Amino acid sequence: MRNPVIRNIIIYLVIAMLIAIGFLLITKKAICSPPYPSWYGDANLDGSTNMGDITFIERYILELVPVTYKVSCDVNQNGEVDMGDVVVCERIILGVQ
Ligand SMILES: [Ca+2]
Ligand SMILES: [Ca+2]
Asked: Ligand 1: distance of its center to the CA of 88 in Å?
């Protein structure tokens, strides 16, 4: 990502979301729950869906992860990896639809 302004905005948004998620995780159980299949949201392919996957998707967006992970990072399966996939992953972790 070449534009430093956009990169900084993304970093600030990511930090804000991580703080919000951290707060919510204090009261919610961080597991993948139905109706999602067990692999759904497992961006880093370690067998579970958790905060590590959100970080992994964010690192993909910042081009810090090999492009070979595009399929697993495209959680909402719209063909692109963006903040929408982070939001879907957050919802999976929080158990909301
Ligand atoms: Ca995972
Ligand atoms: Ca997507």
From this structure: 14
